[in-house]
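Recall the central idea of this unit: under ordinary conditions, the amino acid sequence of a chain determines the structure it adopts. In this exercise we apply that idea directly, starting from the sequence alone.
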Amino acid sequence: MAIVTEMSWDDIADPAFENPARKAWREAVAEIADKAKQTLPECNGRVDSAVKIVLGGDVELQDEGTARVASQSNGQTAYHIVNGSCDCKDYPKAPSNWCKHRIAAGIQKRAYALAKTKLAQLDQASNGTSQPHAEQAQGQPTLDASVSTSALPEAPASVNCHITIEGRQAQVTLRDTDETRLLTRLAALLRQYPLAQPPTEPPNQGAVEPVPDETPYCHLHKVPLKKFSKDGRTWYSHKLADGSWCKGK
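Accordingly, the structure predicted from this sequence is:
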């Protein structure tokens, strides 16, 4: 029995009862919001406010890619058109301009796609079938990494480094909204895990001393002397051009 195709997506905004569509929607919003908090830790309060706006059904995605976000201020409802920017008073002051309205629009877009994926998987599990590739090509929800695992939003500044902990190398990723603060955090981390220095050898340790050449040499004629032995005696000499012998002396 299929359960997804019988549900209208309008049901996700109906708080009167809990159904699979609304449950998947709330789970998707919570998942995307958690990723937003990890990416922009300084905007956690704004993320919480954005979640309330989204779950209240106050974000309307427009065909041209913008979003119309309703927000309560001093008991009055104001509407903001979000398209990478916002006309609210908090926009210029928010870290990297991520006001609650802009965050709400991002959560709405990503959570809607993620909720569709969750419901499609639930439908497949109910029917005991798997999604054919042909249907995916026709626009059916897929577990595309750009939808289900992308963080909201991208951190303005990030850095990766490798450190050695307990003899094992690990990769650490730091994210922040301010590049100067990010580099300060990186320097503090690297001071905790200094680069291991290779052991140094004492001077001349392991060096091979040259072996002196013990071959006798005639410094007078600049030639080596030849060894001769006879009757228990040993001597060194070399023959000259006139037939005589020189002992190097």
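The chain has three domains: 9-129, 157-192, 217-246.
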